[in-house]
Amino acid sequence: MLEIAQKLLQPSKRSDVPPFIVMDVMAAAAALEAQGRSIVHMEVGQPARPAPATALAAARAALGQRIAYTEALGVPSLRRRIARHYGEVHGLDLDPGRVVVTTGSSGGFILAFLALFEPGDRVALANPGYPPYRHILSALGCEPVLIETSAATRWALSPEALIAAHRAKPLQGLLVASPANPTGTMMDAAALKALIDAAEAEGIKVISDEIYHGLDYAFAAETAAKLSDRTLVINSFSKYFCMTGWRVGWMVVPEPLVRPVERLQQNLAISVPSLSQIAAEAAFDGKAEMEGVKHGYLENRRILTEGLPKAGLDRFLPVDGAFYLYAHIARFSDDSLDFAKRMLNEAGVAATPGLDFDPIDGKHYLRFCYAGSAEEMHEAVGRIGHWLKG
Ligand SMILES: Cc1ncc(COP(=O)(O)O)c(C=O)c1O
Predict the structure, then answer these.
(1) Residue 177 CA: which ligand 1 atom is closest?
(2) Superfamily of chain region 11-50+288-389
(3) 4-22, pLDDT tens digit by residue?
(4) Closest CA to ligand 1's atom 16
(5) What is the pLDDT of residues 75-107, one digit of tens each?
(6) pTM strictly above 0.90
(7) Which of 156, 330, 358, 381 has the most CB atoms lying inside 10 A of its own CB?
(8) Rounded distance, CA 26 to CA 43, Å?
């Protein structure tokens, strides 16, 4: 009987994915705040500001209407608006028929992985990288293949490293992200093109996560949609448009994959929340406001890149984009989990241990998110300096 009960309650092996450590840091920070402690939050990768006023107004107005299912691929006017965005930003004439609206880029990963890969397929990822890439792939029965990168290559995957991994054991996929999380580094158009060309020439399917596009400071980010019409592009309203909780994103899908993705979306989600799609379309009219927010990140980036070295954390690469800084902490600790815990408890600054992003060398790194206010950045630098020197 006991045996049967155990069997009934046995979770599937595929559900045995590791937790997202940043969530544990958030919980620990919240517990300290509940005790009355002041905490500077630099752990979670989300903007502190709300969605553009244009998006909020459109959502408020829509609440008077019936909120119903939409087409599985998304509201046609939003798909057209997204396609127009590629014309405005990248000079690309994109067929709106290739645009698919998703529940954040997270929903896009599930659709893309299911549409492109078979169980057992091997998909290359740069290490360090965003943890859910590997966790979603393994939950879907695919094999994430981590390829080591280093500060010496600005954490970018090179065509040589990709092809070497492919020769060692064939790959079916590659996921590339620029600007990248957690490092904030970017690949320029030529480097991205070389990587995509090398992969596609070997029959390796490419996905480009462009969620941090718009938040580029060093140079303009290039979209993979312009470099190859065989690459699947994933993007989101979460970061540039400050709409994390609205759960709305999009994909640019190679034409032959549109119908398979549509069938998957029909079955998995029916449609993306309609209210969020209405808000997302109006968000494009709030770009001036979002450029102001971006300007704030630029100032935060300056405060940290100038202030952290004085505080004692002086080993990190120039931050090209997104809103992250990935600092080497080996001078102080070879246990980033413990270091992050002590920094939270003793200095009141929450950051994410590198182990979340890199199971191999992440013990030597911390990721700081600088999407908060300038005052918070000054406060963080001051607290860390005091703590490390104290
Ligand atoms: C690199 C990267 N991709 C995707 C996501 C998921 O974002 P969303 O599902 O909100 O679009 C995140 C969130 O932090 C991220 O950092």
Answers:
(1) 1
(2) Aspartate Aminotransferase, domain 1 (3.90.1150.10)
(3) 888 899 999 999 988 878 8
(4) 181
(5) 999 999 999 999 999 999 999 999 999 999 999
(6) yes
(7) 358
(8) 7
